[in-house]
Amino acid sequence: MSQICDLVDLGRYPMDRPGSPAYQRMIADVRRDLEEDGCAVLPGFVHDQGTTHLVAEADQVAPMGHRSFTRTNAYFGTEDPNLPLDHPARQFYDRSNAFIPADNFGADSPLRRIYEFPHFMAFIRDALDEPQDRFFRYDDPLADVIINMVETGDGFPWHFDTNNFTVTLAIQNAEEGGQFEYAPMVRSPTNENYDAVARVLAGNNAQVRQLELQPGDLQIFRGRYSLHRVTPVRGARKRYVGIFSFAETANMCGSVERTRQLYGRVLPHHLERAGLRVDTLRD
Predict the structure, then answer these.
(1) Which of 69, 89, 197, 266 has the highest CB neighbour number within 10 Å of its CB?
(2) Domain total for the chain?
């Protein structure tokens, strides 16, 4: 596979033709959806043949996934006894799933080929309406390109993302469950909005939306500000979702604690960048 067209439906999504009328219409549609609720979906971004390649890759690297079974809060933080018992940061839930780290996706990886295709990054940046000097690939050797793998009984409780811009690609659905649910733009860079977070955690679904993503669908999501989860799955078939991560600051990297939780290890790169963040939000 040497061409991006072997994976992406460029006729429907002409990210390789910036400035064309079709490209401008595509960007306008995505920006509208992001403005409305911080989430946009491009159905069939990867065509059926491309999805077949991605499923084969996911099956091959699945044994390298780091499976973890923990209790975590929405911020992937530790218990803080100084907070009230009903504070969102003190609400812990079971989390069980696996992440296949980025160092399993080399230069020949179809998933990495999409992420590193020059027009892909420019397209995502345009869709988010971000200036070039505030948009970067996530500088994390374990987390820039990953696959989230969910097996029967597993799920991912309510949480916020570490990085500002998350782009996901549905690769394979489970037989049952695995729905993506989110509460759009619950917090901002300067406001944790704990009251709204607490309402969602308590089961108030008035603000919660659910997506039924299909294999090949690309999702652009402001996950650092929108609380979200994946419901438990059932059946023998694994749920695979590729994750492409971007940030608005150069050299942004996952925290040591969170990286160890998700991938089972940290690298010197994470230790060197510990504490270097541009906002004061809980992780």
Answers:
(1) 197
(2) 1
